[in-house]
C-alpha cells in the first residue's frame, strides 16, 4: 500500500481535475480577509447568473416550477459560484459537474414533456455534507483511509431529495473524524470563513456553511451531533435547523461513532433564505422517510403545529431569553444581538422573560463523555487502514493539542446515559413550570439563546460547545437565525470582572481586540420542544420578521 | 444489617397483613391444576361481584360513567377476586385495599357532584407490574435489596392513569431482575399458570397475566423488553400489546439495565377483553405524555391510522403468516392456531400469504448480547445491597442454571448496536418489497406469527425468546390474541423428523406428551410497523372478529 501522503496527493489531483478549467479564477491574496464580494466581481458570472444565485430558495422553486428558469441554468449558475467559493475558502470535497447537469437536463425535460414537476424541490441544486453517500462517489469524511471507497448506493436522504426533484451537485468539507468544531483534514485542508479568512467557519459542517455564505448553494444539508449545523450556520450568517432525533433519515450515510445510539447525530438544512428551512423539512417528512429508514419517527408533517395551534396560534408568544448558560459568559456582540432580538419581539407584541438555565454544564459534559466512551477505539480502527495520523489540534501552529480519553465499559456507559436521561426529565419539568410565569397560560413557547459564547474566531479556539450541545443532550430542535454583524464600536470589550471560573476568563480574554472579529456575522439560536420542528420553524420566521421590521 | 432471608421474612409478613382476613379462602390442594373455576365457586364473591368481574373493560367504563355501578363496588369486586387469585397462583406483590377504595370513593363523589367523569378511565381498577412506582409504596422488582425503598412519587404512567380516572389497585409479581421469561423471586415466590399450576405463566409480567386470566383485574400494565408482555399474555389466554419505543411513558418506573438506551423496555396493556387495548392506548396517548416524560414521542393518537387509511381502510387486507422462524419449529398447537387463523381470515375476505423470515437468529442474538453488555455488573451492583444470591435458574429442581456472560466495552457495544441497526434496515426493505406479492398494491399489512414455539410449559423451560424478541429488536409493535386451547387429540405429537439443529430438536422433545399441556391457552402474535400502534390494534380486532365469526 502506498504511503498515506501519496494517497492524499492522488486524491487532490483527482479533485483538481474535476474542476472545469474555464471556471478557474485568480483569487485575491490571502491577506484579503473578506471575500464575500469576490464572486460577483471576478467576472466569471453573468448578470443573470448573479441574479439566479442571489434569489431565495422559494422564489427559485417557483421559477423552476413555472419553467421561467431551467434547472440546467440554475444548476450551472450555482455550480460556477460554488467553484469560485471553493477557490476562496476551500469548501468542497466531491465535484461532479457533468453528472449534476445531466440530472438537471432530465428534470427540465420532464417538466417540458409533462407540464408537471417531479416533486416539491424540482430542479433545485442542493449541496451535501461529505457524509451523504452518492452512488459511484467517494465519501471520505476527511479520513485518508476512506479514499477509494466508492458508494454502491445513495444514502436514503439523497434518494429522497432526488425523488423530490432536487439536484445534488457538490459535497462539502468536514474535519477528519467530524468530531471537531472546526473544519480541517489532511485531504482537503482547511475551510475558512468568507467574512474573514483568518477566522474559522466552525465545524463540522464548515464547508457547507462557507459555501452557502458565498451563495454557492441555495440550500445544503449539514449534520449535528453537538452543534455541527448550528455553529457553522451562526458563524457564517445563515439559517440552520437541528431537527430532533429521527425526523430526517440518516440511513446509508457514513459517520464516526456508528452504533452510538443514545445521542445520535441528525441531518438538517442550512440556507441563506429562511424559507429554505420549511421547504426542506416539509419535503423530506412528506416523503414518508420511515418507509426507507427504520430509525425515522412515523410522524407526518403537521401544518397545525406549523400554525402554532399549541402556541396560541402565534399571537402574543412568550419567549425565554438565556443571556448566559451559567458556565461561560458570551462576548459583547452576542449580548447585543440578544438585546436587539428582545426589543424587536417586544415591539412586535410578544413577551420576553429571562430563561434560567439548569445543569447545562452537567448536560454538556455527560453527553461529551457518552461520545468519548468509545471514540479512541473508533478513530484508531478507521485510521489503521492507512496509518494516517489522528489530527489532535485545529490550531494553525499545532499548539493546544486535544488529548482524547480512553474507552469505558458498556456498564459505565449505561450509567452516563442514565444520568443524562434523568437530567432530561428535570429539564422537561423545569420548562413546564414556566407556565406560572409567562402570563399566557402556556409554558415558555421557545428559548432564545447564543449558539456559542463567541462569533467566528481565529482557528483553533473552538473551546466550548455546550451552548449547542445541551440541546442535543435534551433532543430539543433548535434553529439559527442572523441578527447583526460585529461592529467594534458598538461591541467594545467590557472591563474585566468576576468570572465563573478560569475557563470563563479564558474565553473572555479571547475577545481582547474587537477588530479581530470585525464584520463577523452574529446569529442566535431558537430552541423548541422535542419533535416540534414545525413550531420551531414558524417561530424562527416570526423572530426573523420582527428583526427585519 | 439483618441477613437477607430475615428481610424477606419481614416483607412476607407485611404482605400477609395487607390482605383483609375476611378475604382469605381455602384454596384447593396443589394437585388441583386448573383453578380457573375456583373464584366463582369459592363463595367469597356475590353474584353481582361475579357479574362485575366478568364484564368487559368497555362495558365496565360505560356503567361506571353512567353511575350504574360505583367505582367502590367495581374496585371491591375486583380486589376480592384478585386476593382469591393470589391465594391460587401467587400473583400479587403490593396490596393496598384501603388506599384504592378511598380513591374509588373520591371518583364516585366527583361523578355524583359534577355529573362528569374525571377522564376516559373513570373508576376503572387497573393492576400494575411491580415496576410502576406508587408514592409511599415499595417497588422491589423481586430484589431483596430494594425492600424498604418507598417511592417519593408516582411513575409518570401512574400519574397519567390517575389523571384519566383509573384506580391503581394492586401490583403484580415478576422474576428477580425482570430478566427472565418466567416469574419467580425470593420475596414473593413463584407465580403459576391458572389453567395448569404445574405450568409457567411465563414472565416477566407473569403476575399480571395470571391475575387477569383469573379476572382479578380487567386491565393491567406489563412491560416488554424481549417479550415480557406478550409471552405471559399468550400463555394465559389474554390480549396484550407491546407498543413501539416511546409511545407509553416509562419515566419514574424502576427497571434493570437502566441507561441501556438502544433497545429499551416498554410498557403496554394486558387485558381479558380486546377493547382494553384501544381504551388504554388512546387514553394514555391523548394525555400528551411527552409533556411529562422526555423519551415519549410527540405523536397524537391518530384515528385515521386506527381506521387503517394506510391499509385500504381495512378491506381486503393481506396478512403474512410466519409458520416458523427458521430456527425453532413451533409445537403442534401453535401450528393448528396458525391454520385456524388463516382459514378465518380467508373466510372474512382477506388474503393470507407466507411470511419469509430473514435473520431472526441474528436479530435475537445481537439484541440479547446488547442486554448482556453490562448485565452482570448491573445485577451485582443491585444485589450487593444485601448479599442476596442472584437467581440462576427457573427450574423447580435448580438444574440447568443460566451462566450470564461478563461485560464488554462501550466500543464493542456500539458494534453490536450498529449490526442491529443495519439489520433493521434490511428487514424494513424486506417488508417493503412484499408489495409485489400481495396484490393489494401495498406491502403486507401485518405479520401473524407464534409468540413462542410452545404454549405454557413446565417451569424452567423458557429456552427460546426470539419469537417475541426479534420484534423488540426491530421496534415493531406487536399484539397477542387468543385462538384456542390445547386439545391432545387435535394436537398430537408429530413424528420425529429432520431438525434445524440440536436446539430445535430439544424444543421438539419438550412436547413429548400432549397431555402435559392440556387446556393451555394458544395465542398468536400480530406484528405491524414501527409507531403504528393504532393500526395494529385495529387489525387485531379484525383478526379476533374473524376467529369468533
TrEMBL record, chains A, B:
Q: Name one Pfam family in it.
A: Amidase
User: InterPro entries from the entry?
Assistant: Amidase_dom, AS_sf
Q: Which domain of life is it from?
A: Eukaryota
Chain ranges passing through the membrane: none
Q: Name one GO molecular function term.
A: hydrolase activity
Query: Is Nucleotide-binding found in the keyword set?
Result: no
Q: Keyword Transferase, does the record have it?
A: no
Give residue ranges for domain Amidase: 73-536
Catalytic residues of the enzyme: 129, 204, 228
Q: Give the record's family classification.
A: Belongs to the amidase family.
Please identify the protein, giving its name as recorded. General amidase
Question: Which species does the entry assign this protein to?
Answer: Rhizopogon vinicolor AM-OR11-026
Upper lineage is:
Eukaryota, Fungi, Dikarya, Basidiomycota, Agaricomycotina
